[in-house]
Amino acid sequence: MNPSTLLSLPLLALALGGFVVGSSEFIIMGLLPEVANDLGVSLSSAGLLVSAYAMGVVIGAPLLGPLLGRLPRRQALLWLMGAYALGNLGCALAPNYEWLLAMRMFTAFSHAGFFGCATLLAAELAPPHRRASAMALVLSGLTIANVLGVPAGAWLGQATSWRVTFMVVAAIGLLTLLAQAFWLPATPKPKPSAAGAWDGILRRPVLHALFVCSLSSVALFGVFTYISPLLRDVSGFKPENANFALLLFGIGLTLGNLLGGRLADKGFRYSLPLAFGVSALCLLGLFVFAQVPALALGCLFLWGVASFAISSPLQLLLVEQAGESASLAATLSHAAFNLGNASGAFIGGLWLTAGMGLNNLPLMGMAVLLLTILVCLPLPRLRSVKDHLKATGQLNP
User: Fold this and answer.
1) Which of 154, 188, 222 is at the close of a domain?
2) Residue 17 lies in a domain
């Protein structure tokens, strides 16, 4: 039987898990005004729900890593998705702000282990020449969540209640759990990690790249966390039109992910500073043209493309520089991104609390991006994927 046929259902179950996790992570951003009004908290306090989730991923990654490493991947994924569905149900039933904050952190712990387990299982199930494609398919669930899940969830929450949105995410999580239970094959216990795996992480280029991961997320989430109120209050969008803007941004993220992969494949030296520079220009455009809806949408779309064009180049750079610690580096990169997410949402909240205004928020993100360009310039040169496979013995010269 064709190997791709055997892989279709397991990969679909893993990609569906990525969709659930991605939807739950980002969906809160389109519902911040509704959550703030319902729970009687300020907009900046509601923004801490984004920070709490991100910090849950940061804390959960190193804590769950050793535990999940002892479990068969299928078993680990079932536990993680079950906990994720339960956590989203807890969010939907939250009686107050504090409970919602705690449930967001609980779901984030599950998130911390999911993508590492899912992508590794996809790579193990795929034929050697299709491992990268299998991993990309799992991660495509995350980008599709930004295109479909986030705008649809925001629309549903505004039309009914934000609690209904979390109920739906919990229900999809339960369906995903069933799909994984039926479709994922039994897997053996993973082999113990090689001794000294942390040695590769402590190399200067790896730490440098992880720092760039965090800085880039500070710039993104410092603005994107509050993009819905910015579009409504500054650009004058109605809630349903603001949801269309989120959809457009999600399409930009997906295209940016593909573009970043192409740049990484070619080993393009300036892919990172170019992406950061375009992102800074887009935020400048959003600041200047925020009150012109069509131009604001154009800036938002291009910002989405540039923002996710960094993902593949940074991941490839980490894999190249970390050596035998590549798997751990990939996990920590996710924690680094989420540390930046939490910091960005927190800094954006401080900006608003200080009275700097939603209309000036893009300037803060632009300043962080300009700093990021300076920081990323000394990073080592990217190799192409072909050269990387040759260097690691996975491709005959």
Assistant:
1) 188
2) yes
HSE-up (13 A, CA, CB side) for residue 315: 23
Same structural domain, 362 and 226: yes
CA 366-372-377 angle, 5° bins: 135
* Identity of the residue numbered 218: V
Judgement on whether residues 182 and 220 belong to the same structural domain of the protein: no
Domain total of the chain: 2
Residue 161: DSSP 8-state: -
Structure confidence by residue, pLDDT tens digits, 223-243: 988 888 888 888 888 877 777
What whole-number distance in Å separates Cα of residue 316 and Cα of residue 330? 9
Domain residues for the domain of 330 are 200-397
Alpha helix positions (H), the chain: 3-26, 32-39, 43-68, 73-92, 97-125, 131-144, 150-159, 162-183, 197-201, 204-224, 227-233, 239-265, 271-289, 293-308, 311-322, 326-353, 361-376, 385-391
Q: C-alpha distances in angstroms, 125 versus 68, 108, 185?
A: 18, 26, 9
> Which tokens belong to 209?
């790249």
The identity of residue 391, as a single letter, is A
Residue in the structure block whose two tokens are 């190997």: 3
Q: What is the DSSP letter of 380?
A: P
HSE-up of 215 (CA within 13 Å, CB side)?
A: 21
pLDDT interval class at 189 (50, 70, 90) = confident
- pTM of the model as a whole: 0.73
Phi, psi of 386 (to 5 degrees): -60, -45
Please report the pLDDT score of residue 276 as a whole number.
Answer: 93
**Which pLDDT band, with edges at 50, 70 and 90, does 188 fall under?**
confident
Helix (H, G, I), strand (E, B) or coil at 396: coil
Cα separation, 64 vs 62, in Å, equals 6
Domain membership of residue 3 (yes or no) is: no
Contact status, residue 368 vs residue 362, Cβ threshold 8 Å: no
Coil, helix or strand for 297? helix
- Greater model confidence, 267 or 395: 267
On the question of pLDDT at 119 being above 80, the answer is: no
Quick one: pLDDT at residue 301? 93
